[in-house]
Automatic annotation (TrEMBL):
Ranges for domain Acyl-CoA oxidase/dehydrogenase middle: 122-220
UniProt-listed SUPFAM superfamilies: Acyl-CoA dehydrogenase C-terminal domain-like, Acyl-CoA dehydrogenase NM domain-like
Protein family membership: Belongs to the acyl-CoA dehydrogenase family.
Source taxon at top rank: Bacteria
Boundaries of every Acyl-CoA dehydrogenase/oxidase C-terminal domain copy: 232-380
Keywords: FAD, Flavoprotein, Oxidoreductase
Protein name: Butyryl-CoA dehydrogenase
Lineage: Bacteria, Bacillati, Actinomycetota, Actinomycetes, Streptosporangiales
A GO molecular-function annotation: short-chain fatty acyl-CoA dehydrogenase activity
Length: 384
């Protein structure tokens, strides 16, 4: 096992860290307060090649790997999670299904734009009555002539309503299997297709500078060739996408957890109470030490899951472990950092206030902590 990054990965990490510090940190608070999508920051990320990190050059990508994406997400989330989740969802949920399962024509049409960051893709899985039970899909798609006709509603969909959203890949029931269970397929729906509309824009607790919407499909018609992968394999395909995405969310969570350490170290060196800097008090030192321990342990977990994935080894359990440990670390560190800051930690103008608001969704999105425990237990051989 190697404890250090390769020269290429270290250079990427350093570059993204500088970008986050110099171009995101000074302005993101204003976007957050206004609940505005940071188009200029996203455009800069596109020019840096961040949206193309794990994709081959032949598709307009950077020729890197999934671990490179995770490193970028960690460094961005050390400063802001809204920007980080925009990248994570755009790559692992928007572009990756097309790369993994799409036809040559679909890859050629969509991936160059998605890899450049000029366009964003979204992942239409969750439904109002589904939540963690992603198999309980109610959206339907039936064939009429040479078209799919889609009807249904999706909820909590990231990157689905921006001015640069180009497509949503939607899961829908397309039939029934011999055993009576629904056949679920994935279908690509371009933005602007008649019958496809962006519903309510959610008022969220956190991630306020990211885009999250409800999507409505009302007799939405797309060509039959917009099927992504095999008919009836949509649910299985997206389980694979979610396994990968959990590693990315773990990396984002580690970034938030480490950002809490960064901010606490800075603040404890400046803030004085009872005649000395608060960093001299053992109670504060122990709290920050625990925060660093959580971030370090969670980082090792996502490094391990990513390395197994890239080696072609089974990684489902390790991805669930990484997501569970890292999201817990993010939530615990955000709470402790807010306590270190005291009243200032409750103010949105301070990063830890945003960290605290952003942390909770990490224990929910892309599989709740309870789902991660279920996956781990089943992979250990316990009964389903």
């Amino acid at each position: 096992m190697q404890h250090g990054l390769s020269a290429e990965h270290e250079e990427l990490r350093r570059t993204v860290a500088e970008f986050a510090r110099d171009h995101v940190a000074p302005v993101i608070g204003d976007y957050y307060e206004r609940e505005a999508f940071p188009y200029d920051i996203v455009a800069r990320m596109g020019r840096m090649g961040l949206f193309g990190l794990p994709f081959p050059e032949e598709h307009g990508g950077m020729g890197g790997d999934y671990f490179a994406l995770c490193l970028a997400l960690e460094e961005l989330a050390r400063v802001d999670s809204s920007v980080a989740i925009t990248l994570e969802a755009g790559v692992s949920l928007g572009a990756m299904p097309i790369y993994r399962f799409g036809s040559d024509e679909q890859r050629g049409t969509w991936l160059p734009r998605l890899c450049s960051g000029a366009a964003l893709g979204a992942f239409g899985l969750t439904e109002p009555g589904g939540g963690s039970d992603a198999s309980a899909t109610r959206t339907t798609a039936r064939v009429e002539g040479e078209e799919w006709v889609i009807n249904g509603t999706k909820s909590f969909i990231t990157n689905s309503g921006t001015d640069i959203t180009a497509l949503v890949t939607v899961t829908a029931v397309t039939g029934e299997r011999d055993n009576g269970t629904p056949e679920i397929s994935a279908i690509l729906v371009p933005a602007g297709t008649p019958g496809f509309s962006v519903g309510q824009h959610y008022s969220k607790v956190g991630w306020n500078a990211s885009d999250t919407n409800e999507l409505v499909f009302d007799d939405c018609r797309v060509p039959r060739e917009n099927l992504v992968g095999e008919q009836g394999r949509g649910y299985a395909q997206f389980l694979r996408i979610l396994d990968e995405g959990r590693i990315a969310i773990a990396a984002l969570s580690v970034g938030l957890a480490q950002g809490c350490v960064d901010e606490s170290l800075r603040y404890t060196a400046e803030r004085e109470a009872f005649g000395t800097h608060i960093g001299r008090y053992q109670a504060i030192q122990f709290k920050v030490a625990d925060m660093e321990t959580r971030a370090h342990t969670a980082r090792l977990a996502y490094y391990d899951a990513a390395s197994r994935m890239l080696a072609g080894e089974p990684f489902k359990r390790q991805a669930a472990i990484a997501k569970l440990v890292a999201s817990n670390a993010a939530m615990d560190n955000a709470r402790d950092a807010t306590q270190v800051f005291g009243g200032y930690g409750f103010m949105n103008e301070y990063p830890v206030g945003r960290f605290y608001r952003d942390a909770k969704i990490l224990e929910i999105g892309e599989g709740t902590s309870e789902v991660q425990r279920m996956l781990i237990a089943r992979d250990l051989g316990m009964p389903a």
